[in-house]
Amino acid sequence: MDRTRSIGQERDGAVATVLLNRPEAGNALTADLLERLLRTLDMLEKDESVRVVVLAAAGADFCIGIDPSARRPDRRSPAQDFGRILSDALAPVILRLRDMRRPVIAAAQGRATGAGLGLLAAADIVLAERGALFALDGVESGLAPEGAASWFLPRLIGLSRARALAMTGAAFGAEEAREFGLVWRVVEEGASRPAAAALAQHLAGRAPETLALMKRMFEATTVASLEEQLQVEANVQRRLGRTEDHREAVAALAEGRTPVFRGK
């Protein structure tokens, strides 16, 4: 991996790891980093050989949010537009992460704050090291949550808790994040990337169309009624029941072997 680039990429079979690579700056988000991240994710979405994406970060921290340099007052232009980088650069990344057909696993260490917390929340599964620290700290600078944290967190951890965390800026650890529902599993220090890689390889062995439609199924719950969700499930099962991967799973079970899924 090129250590001079703000976004790194590694491949291990069907698993692609995307790395935030500004460790000296806590992997703070700049417009350039976000543009590179979006291009990388777009490329992986089009690559049929990729079955799982891992989002990780170099250095001590996952991501401290938008680069602090963007927050410095400009005396020549006191009315700065802090929303521009959010709408032009961050929003497309969040939407791409959420809309990817492949499962996205995030591996967090150190600090994951502000928009960095939003990146984690956009993933399908989050693993965090025991010493990881999370916060919606925008309030400390007179700013509000960003990175769609105000959308994800009420759904993941509850409206009351999300509101309190945003208003107080209170930090919380990995075990709390797991209890809240933001983090799936807590791992030891230095183990988040290996654990994410192992989980990704496990998921890469699943039928890709099943995982893709499963993502859509759960996403539909944010807007669907119970009746509509029941129909979503029926439609998904109808489609999956006609796939070659389903027939392979049934045959493998009958023959006492591990199924080999081909995404068909």
From TrEMBL:
Residues forming coiled coils: none
One matching Pfam family: ECH_1
Identify the domain of life: Bacteria
Instruction: List, in alphabetical order, the Gene Ontology terms for molecular function in this entry.
Output: catalytic activity
Membership in a protein family = Belongs to the enoyl-CoA hydratase/isomerase family.
Protein name listed in UniProt = Enoyl-CoA hydratase-related protein
Q: What is the lineage of its organism?
A: Bacteria, Pseudomonadati, Pseudomonadota, Alphaproteobacteria, Futianiales
